[in-house]
Fold:
Amino acid sequence: MTLGICGQRTRWQLISTLACCIMSLTHGISLGWFSPTLPILKSDSSPIGAPVQIHEVMWIGSMLAVGSLIVNMIIWFPIGFFGIKKCMYFVPLPNMINWILIYVANNSAYLYIARVLLGVSGGILVVCFPIFIAEIADKSVRGTLTSFFMLTLCGGITVGFLLVAYISYHVLPCIVIVLPILYTILIIPLPEPPQDLLRRGHDEKAEKSYYFYKNFTSDPTMQNENKAEFDSYRERVLIGGVKENITRQDFFNKDLVKTFGLIVVLLICNQMSGTFAIFNYASTIFTQLGSRMEPNMCGIVMGLVQLGGLSTAVLLVDRVGRRRLLIPSLAGMGLGELGVGLLKSFASPQFLHHNGWIGLTLMCLVAFSSSAGLIALTFVIIVELLPAKIRATGTSISMCGLSCSVFTALMTYPVMIDKYGIDVTMYMAAAFCLLGVIVMGLFLPETRGKSMTK
Structure:
């Protein structure tokens, strides 16, 4: 399966995915910038002037979700009217302005606005990219290519940690701002996904797009076979009702209520289990665990382990399926968080000081487990669960839920850590993992190999 992404048929599917991954890498760097920069912003030598206070930290972190939620509530309309590809052009600009504001910031208000804009960029990205990749990819490599999106996103977070450690506050924006420009240049030649074109009635363009992404040659002996394959694809797409008007019945029926119920639980577990918040406040967590290793370096180690987990997901997702990765992922993450909580509750400060490797190991277990399933597969599963007719609208609604979950987690975790400590925070995170194991284990269907035209 994995080797299939390098085959002749999937060549342009891979290249197009990698072009998108430049922007997901950039977004990851933007996210990873926050945690290691936080101690600098809170210090007396803060690069923006006055030190940032704890209540400002909470809002700077949470403004990301505000921007994402705003765009998630409306992105379904331009997707339906203009198409996925055109909406993807709006991803880089807010990200670039985010870095400009970081560069010129002289008080916290600049960072509030920067994080809102980063949320806007990310909100468009997390809706458009998974749908774009899923609709251009063969089902045999769809999970692998969609997982690339999360691999580069989380890889960017690790790169962000590293860049902050070695590059000064005002130099970093000048470097990272080049990547959105490169992304824009690379996606210009790519055609819109064929399913998206059929949805909007552009059959001739859809056929050319289908030939492009399947890398069909101009060999005259293959013309009839290629034409027959596209006609079959077109018929399946149209039978799925993508050109029909969306009605309330498309959402309020037994199957869709169950689908959205699963998505809600998946999104709550995704964020409240700490997949993002724990990384966002990694430096603070390791300080409380008494690690003798530089806290930011611990965050970098966790990031590298997370990349290992994501790489595992990329290799296995189209081999073993979604359920067999997601459920063990939730279980492993919950056990790791429970271990961190027990360590903090019962170990003495002296023990933690002399055995800092235990906390780091447990946190690495959390990082690996979460990335090998929950992080890598959330977007894959959402896109595959939703029927073709309401996929764009349903994904937009789902990402509104994700934004609310991110906002809640980023508002909750710093308060929990500050008022109740790491142990109580980790017990809470482990409880959400347990919820995910139970609900997903009982109700989540296997979506590997599911047709994207239904």
Summary: The two ends are 23 Å apart (CA to CA). The mean pLDDT is 88.
